[in-house]
Amino acid sequence: MNLYEFEGKEIFEKFGIAIPKSVLLRRGDKAEEIYKLFNTKDVVLKVQVLSGKRGKNNGVLFGSNVGDVKSAVDKMFVSNIRGQYICGVLMEEKLNIAEEHYLSITYDTNRKQPVLIYSQSGGMDIEDVSEEKIEKYYLDIRNENIDLNIPFANELWNCFIKNDARVVEINPLVKTVDGKFFAADSKIAIDDDAFFRHKEWNFEPRTMLGRLPTDRENAVVKIDEGENYYRGTAGKYIEMDGDIAVLFSGGGASIANMDALIQVGLKPANYTEYSGNPPREKVAQLAKIVLSKPGLRGLWIAGGVANFTDIAATFSGIIDALDEVKPTYPIVIRRAGPNEIEGKRLMEECAKRNNLNLKIFGKEIAMGATATVLFDMINVK
User: Helix %, strand %, coil % for the chain, to 5?
Assistant: First the structure.
């Protein structure tokens, strides 16, 4: 999950990283009244969206009087910043900047360990900084403290390891003319599978697409909550604009299947996957929500050859949904793994009693090839 700037800065401050004085404005707040609370004439106004490049898309403006501030805030709330939902505008004191540095911690997937990245050149054009000016320090997850002569390095490391973060970034890390350092921006991505360890996490609703979640997306999240959170995963769902419902299994295969669907000329109504051998009831809840979207023209259920997921049990959950919805559009299934023969038998019985237009395949055919089968079934003359 990607955090908004103001959320990231709240976390930074808890770990001893200095941030500028700021106030978050919501729709309807009186910007001119909040501006009067600042003991400075010049303020920075920043839209709160989940994508980057705000500065290059009119998402960062400045104000030095009541009229400028009110006008800028009104403009920002109706602006289009790369199609993202604007959850607020952060009003912040303008720093007297002497230098802009860059500091982040993320994972190096090749070395399989965290890496701290530092540059004395930061800001909007960090991508253009030459490799020679970038310092990298590989960190040991067993050590809570690091000995580096870099501002906020140890504080950021503690922020990283204690928040189950994938990325923590300060860009720019500002040095003011009086020699003080501040996190002028924040970027934090957390592992949302770690929510059960963090009772303090109470973040605003958001999706990976940078918009507010739909009712279906909110409903799916609840599937993996509660006492059975550890029993497999079935709570991943992103609603999209197409009309082909999908139920996928396995992360990498799921992404490849989305590509295959689009390549044959079909448009997904959603992205979702279940994994880790979830119980029948979890899969049933997910399938019912997926099938509840209006205007569907097809259903594609696809996944690789499972290692330990019980095919019959997960199929039984999907069958519970099919027995209830009884869809008339074409359905194509490609799945294999433990208990697949029993799973296929149960699915074929479901198709027979509900008169479903359904075809089922195992590992004898590639997953992507079954997207073509679905296309042909939908477009049969």
Answer: 35, 25, 40
Beta strands in 179-224 (DSSP E): 181-183, 187-190
**Alpha carbons 344 and 361: distance in angstroms, whole number:** 9
Task: Map tokens 């400028």 to a residue.
Answer: 68
Which CATH number covers residue 360? 3.40.50.261
Q: What Å distances lie between residue 311 and 45, 83, 335, 355, CA to CA?
A: 53, 39, 8, 22
Q: Distance (Å, rounded) from C-alpha 256 to C-alpha 181?
A: 44
- Give the residue from 93, 108, 141 where a domain finishes: 93
Per-residue pLDDT of the chain (381 residues; tens, 9 = 90+): 899 999 999 999 999 999 999 999 999 999 999 999 898 899 999 999 998 778 888 899 999 999 999 999 999 999 988 888 999 999 999 999 999 999 999 999 999 999 999 999 887 767 767 787 899 999 999 998 998 999 999 999 999 999 999 999 999 999 999 999 999 999 999 997 788 789 898 898 888 788 889 999 999 988 988 776 778 888 889 999 999 999 998 767 888 999 999 999 999 999 998 988 999 999 999 999 999 999 999 999 999 898 889 999 999 999 999 999 999 999 999 999 999 999 999 999 999 999 999 999 999 999 999 999 999 999 985
Total domains in the chain come to 3
